[in-house]
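Q: Give me a backbone?
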Amino acid sequence: MNTFLAFGKDCVAWNYEKTGNPVYLHIKQTKKVVAEDRPLKKPTLLAIGIDGGFDNNEAEYEETHNIVILPGYVTLPFPSVELPEKVRLAVDAILLAEGAERKEQVAAWVADKKQRSTYAMNLQQLDNSVIVPPSGWKCIHCDKTENLWLNLTDGMILCGRRNWDGTGGNNHAIEHYKETGYPLAVKLGTITADLEAADVFSYPEDESVLDPLLAEHLAHFGIDFSSLQKTEMTTAERELDQNTNFDWNRIQESGQEVEPICGPGYTGLVNLGNSCYLAATMQVVFSTHSFYSRYHTNQSLKMAFEMAPADPTVDLNMQLTKLAHGLLSGKYSIPAQEKDDNANAASTTRAKQQGIPPRMFKSVIAASHPEFSTMRQQDALEFFLHFLDQVERANGGKPESDPSKSFKFGVEDRILCSSGKVAYNRRLDYILSLNIPLHEATNKEELQEFRKFKAEKISEGKEVSSDEIVRPRVPLEACLANLSAPEEIHDFYSTALKAKTTAIKTTGLTSFPDYLVLHMRKFVMEEGWVPKKLDVYIDVPDTIDISHMRSKGLQPGEELLPDGVPGGEVESNKPLANEDIVIQLVSMGFNHLHCEKAAIKTSNTGVEEAMNWLLSHMDDPDIDVPISEEAQGADTLLSSVDPSKVETLISFGFQEEIARKALKASGGDIEKATDWIFNNPEASVSSDMDATTSNTTPTPIDAGLPDGGGRYRLIGIVSHIGTSTQCGHYVAHIFKDGRWVIFNDDKVGASVNPPKDMG
């Protein structure tokens, strides 16, 4: 009752030993019995924890309170008038306070309420004598008779948008808006006497809206709303229907009888509200030997607690150790007996565990990130990279104990200029991101047949059912081959020719990590930077061999491209950025100078490479230094740093040229210079690598990283269900103890048919 930190019975003595704090409030909760015949109400709102929404099934508890004094565990009942007033006030404050659980949890979540449209009050309606009949509607451009929208300006009846899987309409309503600019449409079949429930969509506002004058707007086309019956779902109801029918069968294996598994390494993670991206990622991470041994085998909970600062709730090492022991010890993977619906006897109960809620871990790992600290759905890959970055920083002083290294590897781009000279660009990465070459699909004939079949169905005004859809099947080998295949770079500025030319780029790996993470680029950008998810299967074998992808570096007889023209002509020495790359990056909202630097630093290789460089160097102290000043001052300024500070950094084990570079970049501040070195590992080779000749042997960029053979065995899959990274659901499948296991939030079971082709 001094620091207000809470401990379980097994750990409270550690805090007494560490701090000497003897007085604790003991809160004991006993679950209230709930009547088994309590009826489950069907939700009518897309909401959680409020009237009409999903029941969040929160258990109710009875609490008893005592004051306990360590080390003898002397117990005093509370409330009691014999206790000092200071103690009574402190207990009252604790019992009234909101804990981490309540602060982190959005107890009642509701889909956004519809707003009044700005276009409704002054909506222009054409006097074109259109009268809409009460039934028998059809799209004026096709044979669709469902999902129809009435444009409230001209009375045209048109079909809605086409869904990602080919179902839905033919986009005629939105195409009509693009041609005419007429803003509002109402969905036919949702209009009843309750006009507020009608589905009105505003195209310029791109959302469902309220039209306060809807009765007048409908009367203009002869519609008497009071006599109409509801025949179609509104957009919100369709969303609710998709949420209640979570029958994404293939990935969740919901059509299979999955046998629950409990025990060490088989603990589920409770969904904290759209936290499945975190759960799926962490299950796979802790199935690796590096994280298992670092935070479980080699570090006990007590050890981590003793090393932690005064507030262990904000210490990443402590919270990772706590999560590891929660997931891997088996202590919390105990079957919670759940009665079978069809049985009365207690002997027929099914084993289902409750899982653990990773609240404190999420709070710590997300504290420095504006997106992960929210309750919104997130991208699992983005979270994985953020997580590894935080782990690397937390282990910065002891790289030998950093488990994130097991995922890290070196990548080398070899650029062959038309002059015959070469350049090598090296970087470190945690993932191998693969494009999906759809033209390499192995089922082209079936796809052609399906397209014909689909066209026939659409012409008949019918939908293609989900079990009739044929998706492209692309082998993983084709995706890997696509990465290492030679690629032409147009408008590459050659320092040998002093002109733009076409160069050939090939990519390889300089080291092979213990665990290779492959990212399938299923989300692609369509026109207007709209993300679209590719509906495709990737045929993944159980083992792959990528030994042939090892990059060999500068070969005998190869000549490096020169840095530039020596001498006093700074402008001629200034490297040039590819204008196309710069324009594309600027259009994404990046600073123009930063974009130029990114293009130059990646030798104008491409937009993606430049963007990756930019994202990882946004916080560089010299990011805003003009390019001409950088080129001019690179040599002179390196020699103008304080020699004593250089010696200090050398004594830390850093090379002299790296120490000089870091001090220059951080304005002579030793602490900032140390951070700069850890955050810029590629700096150690850039000066040597870019030079035409060098008297010193460069330190490899992947020095100290694990490097084995190129053969890998599949051990884990993270799959995403849904059309966008902002919605849907993530599930993990992991190969453990000779079998595949599904981790679906708090549900853990033996996998019957792991979706290897849907990762």
In short: Residues 299 and 321 are 7 Å apart (CA to CA). The chain has six domains: 11-97, 148-243, 248-336+352-406+715-750, 409-512+516-549, 579-617, 640-681. The longest strand covers residues 499-509.
